[in-house]
Every structure is written in C-alpha cells, then in structure tokens.
Amino acid sequence: MLDLAVIGGGASGFFTALQYAELAPERSVALFEKGSHFLQKVKISGG
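Now predict its structure.
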C-alpha cells in the first residue's frame, strides 16, 4: 500500500516527496509526473 502519492514533478512536488522519504524512510512514497522528466520547469528557468 502506498502511504503518499505526490502529483506533479515540479519543484514543490519533487522536494515534498524527497522530504517525506527522508523523514519517514519506513513509509512509501510515489511521485507522478505527466511529462517525461521531473523538474522540467526548473531547468527551463535556469535552475
């Protein structure tokens, strides 16, 4: 069973999933993105 599903692989979604995974390693987390790459807008903006 999945404990947390994060919808959107932008900066907020990515770092939310990362924080959750680090703070609760015994829990499961999945990150869903409709595009083919995570953090795409961050790359475009020069981040």
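Strands lie at 4-7, 29-32.
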